[in-house]
Amino acid sequence: MKFFLDTANLDEIREGASLGLADGVTTNPTLISKEGGVDFKQHIAAICEIVQGPVSAEVTSLDTEGMVREGREYAKIASNVVVKCPLTREGLKATGILDGEGIKVNVTLCFSAAQAILAAKAGASFISPFLGRLDDIGENGLVLLSDIIEIYSNYGWKTEVLAASLRNPIHVIEAARLGADIATMPFKVIDQLFNHPLTDKGQAQFLADWHKSGHQ
């Protein structure tokens, strides 16, 4: 399973890359806005210089024509840019057009297996089911992820399943158990994956015993 960082913060992306745990990056308008008044295209270009894998840049137009126009512009920023389109009728029309031009598309805001089927049929390179947001309204996001993976396994679709809106290590573990192609998460969740009290306790004990025996 590949790890993508769900952030637009360059420091977090550099840290993830230095750990060898940033196979790609997903951004959205909210994450970009958190970085202050940055120039969008320049910021995406900076991310693409740090990470060699796919970097998702989301369109903000609501109509197909606008999405396609933005998508073509974003694709020129760097060879690893992936255009992010919403799972709407207009978004899937744009997905088909961009895919036909050889531009990869990450179809985002997926909340049902039916939507995921449509995205794959439209030519999406990635489908992004949002687990955490479903959990927030009392639905089980992992059930959706499982359904999509099962359905996709029946066919030769190129679409990779990108588990999104991951809020904690359990989400990551379960996404891996189910066989998601990619998990995208905030840097803090990657950081949490390292943590275990017995690791800290064991390391402290080993060092204490080492120093007790006269070593410095």
Top keywords for this entry?
216 residues; alpha/beta; TIM Barrel; eight-stranded parallel β-barrel; 11 helices; 51% helix; globular
Describe the fold and architecture:
With 216 residues, the chain is an alpha/beta fold. It has a single domain (2-212), classed as TIM Barrel (Alpha-Beta Barrel), CATH 3.20.20. The protein contains eleven helices and eight strands. The protein has an eight-stranded parallel β-barrel, surrounded by eight helices. Helix 4 (64-75) packs across helix 5 (89-100) and helix 8 (141-152) packs parallel to helix 9. The longest helix has 16 residues, at 197-212. It is globular, with a radius of gyration of 19 Å. The termini are far apart.
> Biggest sheet: strands side by side, in what order?
1-2-3-4-5-6-7-8
Terminal residue distance = 40 Å
Structural class: alpha/beta
> How many individual domains?
1
CATH topology: TIM Barrel
Quick rundown:
The protein has helices spanning 10-18, 29-33, 40-50, 64-75, 89-100, 113-122, 131-136, 141-152, 169-178, 187-193, 197-212; strands spanning 2-6, 24-26, 55-58, 81-86, 105-110, 126-129, 160-163, 182-185. With 216 residues, the protein is of the alpha/beta class. It is globular.
Task: Please give the structural blueprint.
Layout: E1 2-6, H1 10-18, E2 24-26, H2 29-33, H3 40-50, E3 55-58, H4 64-75, E4 81-86, H5 89-100, E5 105-110, H6 113-122, E6 126-129, H7 131-136, H8 141-152, E7 160-163, H9 169-178, E8 182-185, H10 187-193, H11 197-212
